[in-house]
Amino acid sequence: MASFVAAFANPFNYLGGVSFNPEKDIHDLSGKVALVTGGNAGLGKETIQQLSKHKPSKIFLGARSESKATEAIKSIKSSVSSDVEIIWLPLDLASCDSVQNAAKQFNSQSDRLDILVLNAGVMALPPGETELGHEIQLGTNHTGHFLLTKLLLPSLLKTAEEPNSDVRVVSLASIGHNYAPCFDTILNQEKLKKVDTSARYGASKAANILFAAELSRRHPSITSVSVHPGIILTDLYGSISQRSSIVALGSKTLNLFGSSVAEGAYNELWAAAGAKKEELVNGAYYVPVGIHKPHNKYVRSEKMGKGLWDWTEAELSKVNL
């Protein structure tokens, strides 16, 4: 827990970085197609809203609820002047069937994919599991996104073959990775389900970083990075703060440094469309905004990256995909 507390409570982790304004610094996206999971609210909605201002061809909004997705699309379109097509993609990351259907729907409506933002996630949930039997936070935040990316790889790789292509996959991670249990526990679902919710969340965020790094090694034509959005001024950290007086004190301190939801989307927007391709280190982990953390152990460990990838594929092979 010490490493998590140190990262969470140290406000200097959130100072510095590149100057970034999505209004001015996102380049023209004409002809490009994007997909953002968890796009009906929060960081995902803000990401779609900002991308919409730069004339992409289509944006797919991945979300479980049709009513919430429809409301979000209406809200986004009312705030931007472009006539970008925003399409609801029914998606429940805890269900392999739902992920498969989402990929099929996407592939039937688009022959390219330039930007994939794996933004959706759950945090501080009580014990539970997905349909595959994975711990609910790991299964949603990692396994569901792994399967979705795998099913969309043909589109991503095809688009990457085009001249002057710039295909990016951005995984939303967190400093919560510092609270992850040992790697063997991450892969052992029975053990993982027995640790506390913060450690289970940490496992899922460590997996996000491992996945992004391993995707870059296996498919270098795609730029794959993971990002921490920063400390967003919401109630998400409340359950963690209640269990640690040090974190609670850090939370109060970080009210001075915390970000609004709009600012919280900056790092994923920078990675998805703001930074120039040559400015990104493939496989890297970034904290806001654009601060490269080259010594992150999950980025550096090819053994853990390969281990997680192979384990996830073996788990998914148990169901009829």
UniProtKB/TrEMBL annotation:
Name listed for the protein in its UniProt record: Uncharacterized protein
InterPro entries: NAD(P)-bd_dom_sf (IPR036291), SDR_fam (IPR002347)
Organism of derivation: Penicillium cosmopolitanum
Keywords assigned by UniProt, alphabetized: NADP, Oxidoreductase
GO MF term (any one): oxidoreductase activity
PANTHER family named among the record's database cross-references: RETINOL DEHYDROGENASE (PTHR24320), WW DOMAIN-CONTAINING OXIDOREDUCTASE (PTHR24320:SF282)
Domain of life: Eukaryota
Annotated family: Belongs to the short-chain dehydrogenases/reductases (SDR) family.
